[in-house]
Amino acid sequence: MARVDAELAELHNAGNQTQSTAGEVRSSTQSVLSGIEPLSTGLVGDAGDAFKLWVSTVQSEMTTVEQKLEKIGDAINQSAEKYQSSDSESGSSIRGVGSGMDGIASQLR
């Protein structure tokens, strides 16, 4: 049981860290884009348009990365919950078999 508890804790930790990483990606992306925003004021014409397109592309791609990391974190946490549920059901089944065996043993005596 202690092994299962440790594995569950490890799974939940991995899920939470993955979701935390999504937040870090979001924060880092915002910092980088805020830092380079002043550069756009000096860019005009095609250069300005290309820069704005690049910023938009970076924002879109980072949003996709964040969403995927959050989904992965959710999936890991859901897996941990299913694992815990499965372990509980297995334990109940084993206990049921054990009590059935006790009944058989007492009848044989």
Examine the coordinates and then state which fold CATH places here, giving the name of the CATH topology: Helix Hairpins
Tally of extended strands?
0
Give the end-to-end Cα distance, rounded to a whole number of Å.
32 Å
Shape: rod-shaped
Report mean pLDDT, rounded to a whole number: 83
Portion of residues in helices? over 70%
Q: Into how many domains do the coordinates divide?
A: 1
Q: Beta fraction of the residues?
A: under 5%
Overall structural class, as computed from helix and strand content, comes to mainly alpha
The CATH class is Mainly Alpha
- Report the sheet with the most strands, covering strand number, pairing sense and barrel closure: none
Which regions contain 5 or more consecutive residues with pLDDT less than 50? Answer: none
Q: In the CATH classification, which architecture applies?
A: Orthogonal Bundle
Give me the strand/helix succession. HH
Can you count the helices? 2
Rounded to an integer in angstroms, the radius of gyration calculated over CA atoms is 26 Å
Name the features.
rod-shaped; mainly alpha; 109 residues
Brief rundown of the structure:
The protein has helices spanning 2-40, 45-108.
Give a structural overview.
This protein has helices at 2-40, 45-108. It is mostly helical and 109 residues long. The protein has one domain (2-108): Helix Hairpins (Orthogonal Bundle), CATH 1.10.287. Helix 1 (2-40) runs antiparallel to helix 2 (45-108). The chain starts with a helix and ends with a helix.
